[in-house]
Design goal:
Blueprint: E1 4-8, H1 14-24, H2 34-43, E2 48-53, E3 56-65, E4 70-77, H3 86-101, E5 106-108, H4 115-123
Parallel strand pairs: 4-5
Antiparallel strand pairs: 1-2, 2-3, 3-4
């Protein structure tokens, strides 16, 4: 997979990432707008990791660390590039980032209905938690 290049997103990449998620990510979020992604990038410019092949954006993951917990969001691979190890490479890069920051355990937000993703996460060594349910409250 030497033709796959991983690295953090730049500010200039953010509009393309949003467009990419419309094609490659399952579902949308209330924070899927330029202002939301810019806030993420301003707070932690290394959290949004991109995978590129021949200069083309083929995958993303957000590897957020709040100083205590490691959270994964938006693992997405372009449909034309799935099942080629890109998701695994993104997870490996995210986990390495977490280890460098002192993280001890990563968790991921995965839509229950996105059964295709369940296999990818399981292949990466992740499993649904049996002790926690995520409670949410929109603030807008």
């Amino acid at each position: 997979m030497s033709d796959l290049h991983m690295g953090p997103a730049s500010t200039a990449d953010l509009p393309a990432v949003l467009a990419f998620w419309k094609t490659a990510a399952e579902g949308t979020s209330i924070s899927d707008d330029l202002a939301g992604v810019e806030r993420l990038h301003a707070r932690d410019p290394h959290a949004l990791l991109l995978a590129r092949r021949d200069g083309e954006l083929v995958g993303t993951v957000i590897a957020g660390f709040d100083g205590w917990r490691c959270h994964l969001y938006r693992l997405a691979v372009h449909p034309d590039h799935r099942r080629q190890g890109i998701g695994s490479a993104l997870l490996a890069a995210a986990e390495e980032r977490f280890r460098e920051l002192g993280g001890l355990r990563a968790d991921a937000m995965v839509l229950d209905r996105n059964e295709r993703a369940h296999g990818a996460w399981a292949a990466g060594g992740y499993s649904p938690g049996d002790q926690w349910t995520r409670w949410v409250k929109p603030l807008v």
